[in-house]
Amino acid sequence: MKSWLQPPRLRIGEGSEEHRHATWLELFYDLVFVVAISQLAHNLHDHVSLSGFFGFIVLFIPIWWAWIGTTFYANRFDSDDIGHRLLLGMQMLAIAALAVNVHDGLSESSAGFALAYAAGRILLVIEYLRAAKHIKAARPLAIRYAQGYGIAATLWLISAFVPIEWRFGFWTLGLIVDFATPLTANKLVIGLLPHAGHLPERFGLFTIIVLGEAIIAVVDGVAEQKWDIESAIAAVFGLGIAFSLWWIYFDNVGGAPIRNARADGRVSLMNTWLYTHLPLVIGIAASGVGVEHVVASEAGVALPDNYRWLICGSVALCFIALGILHRTGVIRYCKIRTKYRSGAAAVLLIIAILGRGLLPLAVIALVAFVCAVQVFQDMYQSRPTTRLTDAI
Question: Within the chain, which residues score under 70 in pLDDT?
């Protein structure tokens, strides 16, 4: 901490974009999301069904969006003073409260979940009002965000005090306002684009968090099973799925959306990058739960339909999101990789549809094979002898 109290500072723009990494405070802040994602995964583990997966998504979205809001604020206005530290600490308490209320977040604990989310958004609004007060160049953008997020927070706050049959309508309206706020500020964002090095790193770190949950799921699945050769092989395949998703994502990620927006004003690409990460991280987190169930299943009995759909569908969702990112040039622009990602998603869905009666080891082996093919395809395409024209 450089001083006890200092105003927010502009960390982006010409002459301000020194090389940046995530701060120790940002990394500490991420820890509470490790817990929140873990609680979401445990809740899905106990409710593997279509309605359970829908509930998982409903609760995942506000937790992810809370992380997004704080990350974008810190990217532009981070200041290491006592005011920012205390506000971020209180936001961590709000996220911890979200995690506590996850298990019954769509029933008995829904009011507590709503209050926790509203509290986190109100604290973020205070951060933006501080930025608006002290940074004249960013004032219009900071006020726009404060207004939008403030309206959304109010809707969530009201939802805690209305009958439960109305509550989720307020949640929907609140999330619509939350997600629409950055889209209404495109013209204001042009001159205040995020840091092209810091933001991809932060997105990568959140991806690591959900991949970490997939690793934990493999360990938990083996721990639940009596040790034998089938469970060991299934665990290896489960780790292979997580490793493949890591490889595919991080070999293609970069700051291209921000640099392109800076060059030609196409903020829409940056927004695509932002919003497409949501199905990607949902798929990764859910795939970990699917792997855990497969590893813990009885080796000689056909894998239940709901578990097969969970692991195949969630990994397919990852590849669909990655295909969109490739096709739009948000990550490495590549039509060939788009086709491979789309093809992988189609194959996984075919396994989910036609795989009734397959043993757990067969299902996870097929999923791991599909993922491995993507890795080998990327390696082949990236070999030094590949011509530039072949890559596009």
Answer: 1-5, 13-18, 225, 227, 254-258, 260-265, 329-334, 384-392
Write down the pLDDT at residue 270.
81
Residues 6+ apart with CB under 8 A from 219: none
pLDDT of residue 387: 44
Contact 32, 99 (CB under 8 A): yes
Q: How far apart are CA 277 and CA 244, in angstroms?
A: 17
183: left (phi over 0), alpha (psi -120 to 50) or beta: alpha
Q: Give the pLDDT of residue 255.
A: 60
**24 — alpha (psi -120 to 50), left (phi > 0) or beta?**
alpha
* CB contact set of 145 (below 8 Å; sequence gap of 6+): 128, 181, 182, 185
- Whole-angstrom distance between the N-terminal and C-terminal Cα of the chain? 47
The answer to whether 391 and 336 are in contact (CB under 8 A) is yes
Indicate the average pLDDT of the chain.
88
Say if CB 272 and CB 328 are below 8 A apart: yes
Residues 266 and 114: their CA atoms lie apart, in Å, by 34
Q: What is the pTM of this model?
A: 0.91
pLDDT for 145 equals 96
Report helix angle 82-100 to 110-134, nearest 10: 160
- What is the DSSP secondary-structure string of 115-135? HHHHHHHHHHHHHHHHHHHH-
Position 267 scores a pLDDT of 78
Q: Pull the structure tokens for residue 121.
A: 């958004």
Q: Tell me, what's the pLDDT at 392?
A: 46
Residues 268, 231: Cα–Cα separation, whole Å: 45
Compute, in degrees rounded to 10, the torsion defined by CA atoms 140, 142, 148, 151.
-110
